[in-house]
Every structure is written in structure tokens, then in C-alpha cells.
Write a structure and sequence with these properties.
single chain; about 160 residues; mainly alpha; 4 helices; about 85% helix; globular; transmembrane
Length: about 160
């Protein structure tokens, strides 16, 4: 996996690109506004979401997920356990923050509804978690790790 800051940034870009693209599309369909929004509006919201997700990944959630994982009492030589733990904490943290972002964007775009903000947040969180967990663990995580190790890191070895 990433061995330095540059590789961490590239890995984060790849992961955030995939996750934000799928999760943003999913959320547009879930709230039923995909037909009502203009391309410009969707582009702005997705770009804001991508920038926020990348910043959270690199500076808040990512480091915290790693810190928690390496503080847990399990055999760290088992790489699969390390990856699964980091991924699980990343999913929880990113869904927590990005659901808040989604709530704010919904509020800005549609205003308050008859539901409480806490109730709306809980609903958004659960719906996002239901998709983010398998998406990260079964699709994006393995795909990005495969591409990263076989394209990015392999090309780095060829250049040197």
C-alpha cells in the first residue's frame, strides 16, 4: 500500500474519486432529485463533495482510522486484518461526515422538511452506510488497491 505522502495522496484521490462518484449518484437517486437538477448543480455538488471527502480522508478520518486500528489489540502482522480494520473505521468516519454534508446540501437545495434534522441525518446515515460498506469492502477497496499496486507502484519501480 502507500509508502509515502505522495502515494497516500494518489491512493486517496483514487479511492475518493470512485466512492464519491458512486455515493453521489446513489444519493441523487435516493432523494429523487436527479431529474430536477441541472448538470451545473450536480457538478458543483459532486466537486464540493469530492474535495471534502479527500480532505477528510487525508487529514481527519484516514489518520484517525489508522491510529485506532494500530491501537487495537490484534496481530498487526496479519495484513488483511489491518486493511479490514482501517477500512471499517474509514467507512464509519466518512459516512458520518459525508452524511452530514448530504444533509446540508439537501437543506440548501430543498429547505427544511417535516422531519427533524436528527431524524433526517439518521436516515441519510443508514442509507449511506448500507451502500458504503459493501462498496468499499467488496468493490472500491479491492479495485483501488489492485490498480494502485499494479499500475502506480509498478510504474514507479520501472521508472527508477
Amino acid at each position: 500500500m502507500p509508502t509515502n505522502k505522495k502515494e497516500s495522496f494518489i491512493f486517496g484521490l483514487m479511492m475518493c474519486s470512485g466512492m464519491v462518484a458512486v455515493m453521489a449518484s446513489y444519493n441523487l437517486f435516493v432523494i429523487g432529485t436527479v431529474e430536477e437538477l441541472t448538470f451545473h448543480t450536480v457538478l458543483i455538488e459532486v466537486m464540493c463533495g469530492f474535495v471534502l471527502a479527500l480532505l477528510l480522508d487525508l487529514f481527519v478520518v484516514g489518520p484517525l482510522a489508522k491510529k485506532i486500528t494500530f491501537a487495537l489489540p490484534f496481530d498487526k502482522s496479519k495484513k488483511l486484518l489491518v486493511v479490514l480494520n482501517i477500512s471499517a473505521f474509514m467507512i464509519l468516519g466518512m459516512v458520518f461526515f459525508m452524511s452530514l454534508f448530504g444533509l446540508v446540501m439537501t437543506y440548501v437545495g430543498q429547505g427544511l422538511s417535516e422531519y427533524s434534522m436528527l431524524g433526517m441525518y439518521g436516515t441519510i446515515f443508514i442509507k449511506n452506510f448500507i451502500l458504503a460498506l459493501p462498496l468499499q469492502l467488496l468493490v472500491m477497496g479491492p479495485l483501488v488497491r489492485f490498480v494502485f499496486t499494479n499500475v502506480i507502484q509498478k510504474n514507479k519501480a520501472v521508472v527508477h
